[in-house]
C-alpha cells in the first residue's frame, strides 16, 4: 500500500542552496494545518514547533580525512492542552497520515494526564508583535573538498609551529543552516533563520607521559568573521607547546584568574541557579535571591537579545513571548530570575521571556586586557582549562580539576596541571575583583577574563 504524499509538500532543496523564505512559508503553512487539526480534536490550546537544519562537517587527522558528514534534519513538535492537561508528540515524517497521527497522539496523552494548574500557553497579551531580523542568515557556499582543504591547512599550520608537536587530535570544519517556525493558538506565528560556521584544531605536543593537548577554534554566523584556518592552527600549536613541562603548585589560598573562554562557565552556574526549574524544585543555592547583593557593587550582567549577528538574538522566546533588553545583575544585585511561563506560574511570578534559555548576555568590564589582570594579580593562578563537574547546585559548593599557568610578578612563569580549585559559588561571586576587556566573542555569554581574589588551590604539597 502506497503512503499518501503531503497535501502541501515542502519544496526540495540542497544544503547549499536554501530558499529560506519559501521554506519558512511552507513551515508556517504546516504549523497552521497542525493547529487546526488540534482544534478539531477539541484542544483548548495548542502550539507547534517546526524546524529544518542542514549541515556539512569534516574531520581530518594527521593529514588524512577521517569523516565527511552531510546532514539534513527536520522536526515537528505538537503540544496540546485540554484545560490544564498537557500532551506532546513529535515526528520527522511529513506524510499527511503521520502528521495527523502525531496530533492524535498528543491529544490522547493530554486526555490521560493529570491536571496541572501551571500548564498552558503563555498569556496572549505577552506575544511578540515586533518581529525583527538580526543579520543571522549567511549561508556558506562550501563543498566537501573546500572544507577538507581548510581543515588540512589548519592542522598543517599547527604542526609546523614546533618540532615538539608530534601528534594531533585533528582539525574540523563545519557549516550549517537552521530554519524554524513557532506558532500557537493565540494566532502567533514566529519565524527564525540562522547559520553557523566553525573551524577548529587540537594538537598534541611532547611524547609519552609528558604529552600535552590543547587547541583553538573559531565560530561565527558568517564565514567572513571566522579566523583564518592557518591562524587557528598556529594558535592551537602554540597553546599545546606552552603547556609542556608543567610543574606542581603548593596547596594554598591564591588569587585566580579564569581566562575569558573559561570565565563564562561562572556565569553559566549563575544562570542555572536562577532559572525557574531549579527554583520551583528548590534545587538551587540561590532561592529567594532577587534583590540580594550577590556580587561586588560595580558588577553587572545585561541581557541583549537584539544584537546584530548575536548567537542568541531573537524577538521572541520559545513560547512566542516578546523578549526585552534588561539587567540580570545591576550594582551587584540580582534583579530577576530567568523564567518561562510554566516556571513563573509555579513560583507565582510572571515570565521573563526566557522560555528556552537566556539570550545574549553581556558582563560589563571594569579592567583592561588579560595581561593587565595578571599584572594586577601579581602572584596566583591563571586557569585555562577545567575538568569534571564538581558543582553542587543545591549548596553552591565548587570543586573542579584545572590546568593553566602559574603567575609570578604579574607574568606567566610556568604551566601547571593536575590541580583542583575549590570554593563556594556565593563566596566566589563576592570575591570577583575584576572583569577584563578581553571578551571572548565565541558564545552568547560575552565576558572577559575574571579575577577572583581568593580560592583554595590543591596542588602537590602544602604551601611553604
TrEMBL record:
It comes from the Bacteria. Its EC number is 3.4.24.-. GO terms for molecular function: metallopeptidase activity. Residues 251-459 form the Metalloprotease TldD/E C-terminal domain. Residues 46-110 form the Metalloprotease TldD/E N-terminal domain. Residues 138-244 form the Metalloprotease TldD/E central domain. Belongs to the peptidase U62 family. This is Metalloprotease PmbA. It comes from Novilysobacter selenitireducens. The gene is pmbA.
Amino acid at each position: 500500500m502506497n503512503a499518501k504524499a503531503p497535501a502541501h509538500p515542502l519544496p526540495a532543496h540542497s544544503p547549499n542552496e536554501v530558499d529560506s523564505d519559501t521554506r519558512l512559508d511552507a513551515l508556517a503553512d504546516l504549523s497552521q494545518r497542525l493547529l487546526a487539526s488540534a482544534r478539531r480534536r477539541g484542544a483548548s490550546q495548542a502550539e507547534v514547533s517546526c524546524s529544518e537544519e542542514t549541515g556539512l562537517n569534516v574531520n581530518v587527522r594527521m593529514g588524512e580525512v577521517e569523516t565527511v558528514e552531510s546532514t539534513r534534519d527536520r522536526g515537528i513538535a505538537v503540544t496540546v492542552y485540554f484545560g490544564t492537561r498537557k500532551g506532546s508528540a513529535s515526528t520527522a515524517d511529513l506524510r499527511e497520515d503521520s502528521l495527523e497521527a502525531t496530533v492524535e497522539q498528543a491529544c490522547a496523552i493530554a486526555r490521560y494526564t493529570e491536571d496541572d494548574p501551571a500548564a498552558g500557553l503563555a498569556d496572549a497579551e505577552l506575544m511578540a508583535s515586533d518581529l525583527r531580523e538580526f543579520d543571522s542568515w549567511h549561508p556558506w557556499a562550501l563543498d566537501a573538498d573546500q572544507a577538507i582543504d581548510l581543515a588540512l591547512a589548519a592542522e598543517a599550520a599547527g604542526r609546523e609551529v614546533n618540532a615538539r608537536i608530534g601528534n594531533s587530535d585533528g582539525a574540523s570544519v563545519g557549516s550549517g543552516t537552521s530554519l524554524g517556525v513557532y506558532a500557537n493558538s493565540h494566532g502567533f506565528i514566529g519565524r527564525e533563520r540562522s547559520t553557523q560556521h566553525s573551524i577548529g584544531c587540537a594538537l598534541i605536543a611532547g611524547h609519552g607521559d609528558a604529552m600535552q593537548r590543547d587547541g583553538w577554534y573559531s565560530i561565527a554566523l558568517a564565514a567572513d568573521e571566522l579566523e583564518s584556518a592557518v591562524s587557528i592552527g598556529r594558535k592551537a600549536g602554540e597553546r599545546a607547546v606552552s603547556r609542556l613541562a608543567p610543574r606542581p603548585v603548593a596547596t594554598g589560598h591564591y588569587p585566580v584568574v579564569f581566562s575569558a573562554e573559561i570565565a563564562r562557565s561562572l556565569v553559566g552556574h549563575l544562570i542555572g541557579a536562577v532559572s525557574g526549574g531549579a527554583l520551583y524544585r528548590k534545587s538551587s543555592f540561590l532561592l529567594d535571591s532577587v534583590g540580594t547583593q550577590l556580587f561586588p557593587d560595580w558588577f553587572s550582567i545585561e541581557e541583549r537579545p537584539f544584537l546584530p549577528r548575536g548567537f542568541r538574538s531573537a524577538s521572541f522566546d520559545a513560547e512566542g513571548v516578546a523578549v526585552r533588553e534588561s539587567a540580570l545583575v545591576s550594582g551587584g544585585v540580582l534583579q530577576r530570575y530567568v523564567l518561562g511561563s510554566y516556571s513563573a506560574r509555579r513560583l507565582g511570578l510572571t515570565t521573563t521571556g526566557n522560555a528556552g534559555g537566556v539570550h545574549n548576555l553581556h558582563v560589563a568590564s571594569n579592567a583592561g586586557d588579560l595581561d593587565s589582570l595578571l599584572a594586577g594579580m601579581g602572584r596566583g593562578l591563571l586557569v585555562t582549562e577545567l575538568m569534571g563537574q564538581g558543582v553542587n547546585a543545591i549548596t553552591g559548593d565548587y570543586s573542579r580539576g584545572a590546568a593553566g599557568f602559574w603567575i609570578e610578578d604579574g607574568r606567566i612563569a610556568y604551566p601547571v596541571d593536575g590541580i583542583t580549585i575549590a570554593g563556594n559559588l556565593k563566596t566566589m561571586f563576592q570575591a570577583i575583583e575584576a572583569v577584563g576587556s578581553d571578551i571572548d566573542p565565541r558564545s552568547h555569554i560575552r565576558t572577559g577574563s575574571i579575577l577572583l581574589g581568593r580560592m583554595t588551590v590543591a596542588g602537590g604539597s602544602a604551601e611553604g
